[in-house]
């Protein structure tokens, strides 16, 4: 028995769902860049577990700035095509704001840094989960959901034990960053495969 066409998520118009999916598929390389940056940050944190709070904050700030810029670039590209760009822009601005605040307060108490990181992880994770339901299932929706859940769980873990030692926090951040980066790379190559599959004839396809 043949199956019917994929039914879009309830409450999401088919044209908007298709537009969001197409926009992410075209910008798959930005998702991949985000994953690579996250994995590199995690490796640095593992290699230097006894780094001072100042160095940790600088690494985190740089990662946030790169991540935020990548999201804003993706949002601008989507806006130029009159596609949905609000979630990408909101997440990018949030990442840059967190990065700048962290850079300006390198000597602040670890507790304040823990709460700042937890708030970022919770809000970013929530935005990613919300954005996932505006993405077609065959474009890797559940990988984006897993990335958002990973962020939310990381934020909750920090709030449960805000007085955790710097070394343990470093390992938590490293594990989170590497897991998140791997999920984003899987999503990026899933999006790339869909972009190549549905690219119009005669258009340049990614190598």
Tell me what you see in this structure.
The protein has 207 residues and is mainly α. The chain contains 7 helices and no strands. It has helices at residues 14-26, 28-47, 53-80, 86-104, 110-132, 141-160, 166-198. Helix 3 packs antiparallel against helix 4. The N and C termini lie far apart (37 Å).
How many E-type strands?
0
Indicate the structural class: mainly alpha
Order of helices and strands: HHHHHHH
Average predicted confidence as pLDDT: 75
Return residue spans where pLDDT drops below 50 for at least 5 consecutive residues. Answer: 1-12
Globally, the shape reads elongated
What is the beta-strand fraction?
under 5%
Euclidean distance between termini CA atoms? 37 Å
If helices are DSSP runs of H or I spanning 4 or more residues, what is the number of helices? 7
**Main pleated sheet:** none
Radius of gyration: 18 Å
What share of residues is helical?
over 70%
Summarize the structure.
With 207 residues, the chain is mostly helical. The N terminus is likely disordered.
